Amino acid sequence: MSRRFYIAGNWKMNTSRESGVALAAGLAKAIGSGGSVEVGVAPPFVYLLPVGEALRGSRIGLMAQNMCCEDDGAFTGDISSRMLKDAGVAAVILGHSERRHVFGESDELINRKVVKALSDGLKAVLCVGELLEERQAGGTPDVVSQQVKIGLEGVSRAAMSDVTIAYEPVWAIGTGVTASPDQAQEVHAMIRGLLENLYDAGVAAGTRIQYGGSVKADNARELLAQPDIDGALVGGASLKVDQFAAIVQAGEDLSR
Ligand code: PEP
Fold first, then answer.
1. Is 65 in the pocket of ligand 1 (CB under 6 A)?
2. Of 93, 173, 244, which is best to mutate to test ligand 1, by the most ligand atoms within 8 angstroms of its C-beta?
3. For residue 92, what pLDDT band results from cuts at 50, 70 and 90?
4. Statement: the pTM of the whole predicted model exceeds 0.85
5. What is the C-alpha separation between 236 and 230, in angstroms, rounded?
6. What is the DSSP letter of 45?
């Protein structure tokens, strides 16, 4: 089964309204309206509406960086899936390493968010990845398997068509250190095997697994050339039109 590449930009807590709109407009122009790679960007919540406007008519989807697993009520500072949909969001990043390690989100909480997003009609990008000390202790397969297993608890086979997994080794995020294509491929293949155990061969073959961690224009091609790497979740380089457009282009050039 051929999986369409999916390149997503996580803007994190960056940009202003003006620079975010300019970035979105620049990306819409640079990436154009035709192509086989799926593209999305996740601006800060407060810029979803103006960035969504700037993306209108382009093929770049609007994403969010996080969400609450409740519908409404006394959850100060949080944002619900319905609010995201109301703002034109199609997909949400969940379990990003900064949510796990800076804000202390557990696998169980992330799972509740994944289930909620899917049941409310949002696509979910479930992020997983090990810390440097976990890798050095040989714990990568266990840590990542646990995150995938718990993150997907209660997610049906049918709902898996709306799930993307992003393997993001924490030691490679924002550090300039990228996992080598072989290191990334090894974990991606392991995740795909796990999906076969959890679901079946069809789900394993059809689920996209993005790589994230210091992806740039100059290393995207060798990463995307790996058989189990189906796209990229891009932080820093997604804030620069030429860098992000070049990563998307690498996906176009390698499209399966
Ligand atoms: C990320 O934020 O998910 C990420 C991978 O960041 P960076 O590309 O900057 O390492």
1. no
2. 173
3. very high
4. yes
5. 19
6. G
pLDDT tens, position by position, 163-189: 999 999 999 998 988 899 999 999 999
Q: What radius of gyration, in Å, describes the C-alpha atoms of the chain?
A: 17
Question: Could you read off the pLDDT of 26-80 as tens digits, one per residue?
Answer: 999 999 888 999 999 999 999 999 999 999 999 999 999 999 999 999 999 999 9
Of all helices (H) and strands (E), which one includes residue 62? strand 60-64
Q: What is the pLDDT of residue 174?
A: 87
3-state SS, residue 104: coil
Count of CA atoms in the C-beta half-sphere (13 A) of 226: 24
Could you identify the atom of ligand 1 that is nearest to the CA of residue 127?
A: 3
- Residue 173 CB less than 6 A away from ligand 1: yes
- Short-list 153, 207, 156, 214, CA closest to 180: 214
Tell me if residue 96 is catalytic: yes
Ligand 1: distance of its center to the CA of 29 in Å?
23
What is the DSSP secondary-structure string of 207-252?
-EEEEESS--TTTHHHHHTSTT--EEEESGGGGSHHHHHHHHHHHH
Q: State the distance from the centre of ligand 1 to the C-alpha of 74, rounded, in angstroms.
A: 31
CA distance linking residue 37 with residue 2, whole number of Å: 12
236 ligand 1 Cβ < 6 A: yes
- For tokens 């309204």, the residue is 17
Tell me which amino acid residue 30 is.
A
- Give the span between the Cα atoms of 199 and 205, in whole angstroms: 11
Q: Which atom of ligand 1 is nearest to the CA of 93?
A: 3
Residue 1 above 70 pLDDT? no
Pocket lining: 52 vs ligand 1, CB cutoff 6 Å = no
